[in-house]
Design goal:
The protein is built from nine helices and 17 strands. By secondary structure, the protein is an alpha+beta fold.
Length: 354
């Protein structure tokens, strides 16, 4: 699932300066300490294309280069595993054969996908693959399926028809196929945070086609400023949310769509109907320490609509926060973002309290 959330990291300027006079005779140890401190403020970045999107990784400190190399390698590895069309991965073979033993990472991601599917009563459903194929979103061969075709395919969309054993053995009901694209980038950004930490990085940020996740604070100790794309004018951003150690992930109907017969059809499919979700929302942003959860919930809450999404958050206020944008331009934020969320165009969003 391609996402185009625009992220910006604001105000990361650093200046090294010394005192006059006595600074010329400062000790070697003080110079070394200053050099070490300055290296912590230096960023390195890399950009690559994977999972059908452009990805940018940024890390700070003396271990940044090693962390970026390890992060890029991890993305390549996970992309091959999770791709629905990769012959070297787990998903294509599993969908073709209906059963198989998958890798530890695929098993972990599928387990989380089933968990989120269950948590949202199937509004996020990792077995949506047959419907997505019918609309042509994976291939780009777009079409509007006939109603009876969708009715038939919906019989095969049911996450409860997926069996995952502790051994990694997966069994699908006849005709069922899985697509982890709606949650794979969230899992990948979670993994990248661990890869960065394992390589000695304590400050970093990644944008995986718009799925943004941060490690720690900015080097100066302040929060990261993440801008959210305006769903009504995709050349602009409409808000900024301040975070540390959080993922910021957006789903919107404006991100991937096609027009036919004067109607626009977007890629966020309601698994109850087989048609693009028509919930009154145009954008949902999830903020959570759990990138995998945030990725799945951004889809599910978009399908729910504003009132059901607020009710869902009220049941799980410690797990995530949300920014909901309605077709009429109304913006709702959940309580945990109060003081951390700014409308860049002015105005005050409604704040929802449990």
């Amino acid at each position: 699932m391609k996402k185009f959330l625009i992220c910006s990291v604001i105000g990361l300027g650093f200046l090294l300066s010394g005192c006059s006079g006595e600074a010329d005779v400062q000790s070697a140890s003080a110079s070394a300490a200053a050099l070490s401190a300055s290296s912590d403020n230096v960023s390195q970045s890399t950009e690559l294309f994977a999972m059908d999107t452009v990805m940018t990784l940024t890390a700070y400190g003396s271990q940044a280069a090693a962390a970026l190399d390890a992060g890029a390698a991890e993305i390549d590895r996970l992309d091959a595993l999770f791709s629905i069309s990769s012959a070297s991965g787990d998903i294509l073979s599993l969908n073709q054969n209906g059963t198989g033993t998958v890798s530890d990472d695929t098993a972990a991601l599928l387990s989380r996908a089933l968990e989120v599917s269950n948590l949202t009563d199937g509004l996020f459903d990792c077995t949506i693959a047959p419907i997505m194929e019918a609309w042509g979103f994976p291939s780009g061969n777009y079409r509007v399926p006939q109603a009876d075709e969708l009715t038939h395919l919906l019989e095969k969309v049911d996450y409860q028809q997926v069996s995952l054993a502790p051994s990694g053995q997966v069994t699908l009901a006849s005709g069922t196929a899985i697509d982890l694209g709606g949650i794979a980038k969230g899992y990948t950004s979670d993994r990248l945070m661990q890869v960065f930490a394992d390589n000695g990085v304590t400050s970093g940020i990644v944008s995986l086609g718009g799925n943004v996740q941060t490690l720690g604070h900015k080097p100066d100790g302040s929060l990261w400023h993440i801008a959210i794309q305006d769903p009504f004018d995709t050349t602009q951003t409409f808000a900024v949310v301040d975070v540390a150690d959080k993922a910021v992930i957006t789903s919107g109907g404006y991100q991937r769509y096609f027009d036919q017969g004067g109607t626009r059809y977007h890629h966020i499919i309601d698994p109850r109907t087989g048609y693009p979700a028509d919930s009154g929302l145009v954008s949902v942003t999830i903020v959570s320490a759990d990138g995998t959860l945030a990725d799945g919930l951004s889809t599910a809450l978009f399908i729910m609509g504003r009132d059901a999404a607020v009710s869902f958050w009220q049941q799980h206020p410690d797990a995530f926060d949300a920014v909901l944008v309605e077709e009429n331009g109304t913006v709702t934020i959940t309580e945990g973002l109060e003081g951390l969320f700014t409308l860049t165009g002015g105005g005050t969003p409604e704040v929802v309290y449990a």
